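Exercise 3.2. Students should predict the tertiary structure of the chain below and write it as structure tokens, then compare their answer with the key that follows.

Predict this chain's 3D structure.
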Amino acid sequence: MTQAGEKTGLTLDEFMALDGHYEIIDGRLVSKYGDDPMTGAGALHQFLAQNANRILDHYVFPRGIGAILGDNTTFHMHSNPQSLKDTFEPDVAFVRADTIPSGWDIEKPFPGVPTLAIEVISPGEKAAEIMGKVRAYLEKGTEEVWLMFPRTTEVHQYQQGIAQPRVYVMGDTLDASALFPGIEGLTVQALFALPEWLTTQLSST
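Answer key:
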């Protein structure tokens, strides 16, 4: 059985049959959320991903310009399905309508890249793997990658053709005009907000 950390050469069918939360980075199998592939993301991770999904979908869906997809969507990043090199599951993805390949079977993984990939960074994720994914996204055609860091409440925005990321902190509004001109409400505070009922409950325990 292939173990996390190994070079794989896995086929698409073999990868889809794996038990656990995995991605492939430069041909190497890695656990998506840290060292244990059977451990999923915590609730905080999901709350923050849903924030991004909700804000972006409110803009994208009425305009019919594409789709906002959640973290169960696998992108094969133009990998050969007989020997996968990069296979990612971003926590939130935007796919522009005109990039969706003709004849794509929507019950199967997306063969190309997301237009935008958003990754909520978990404590167990390794810096080298995170940056390997960022490089692969951009090299293969993803226009922007946003990394959300819950512990520091920062968003790092990587863009095609720009060497250094833009770093946003509390009080900032993300500049997403290249993808979503005129979008409103895309603030760091909104991305990291937790429901009032939850914060009230947590503060009382």
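Discussion points: The helical segments are 12-16, 43-63, 127-139, 188-191, 196-203. The first strand starts at residue 22 and ends at 25.
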